[in-house]
Amino acid sequence: MSKTAVAAFEVIVIYNGVSKEVEVNPNQAVQALLQHSLNVFGIKESRENFGLFTTEGVEVNLESSVEDAGIDADSRLLLRPRRVSGGA
What is the pLDDT of residue 2? Predict the structure, then answer.
């Protein structure tokens, strides 16, 4: 029997200088990782305004899978509010 299960791993998510490990699966959506991260940090308000960013400040595409976004066990992600664009 071939092994089809994909191994989960943990990534470091940093919010306001606090680091926490969050378990992810390579096939899950980054959006799911974001929601789990918000839960881990107890963020209940304005959740739609948050995003995950690389340590270089690039926002991770929430539509991608964890694997497609290049997130692996060595990744460190920043949880922070997205910049709001618009308005004249």
Answer: 45
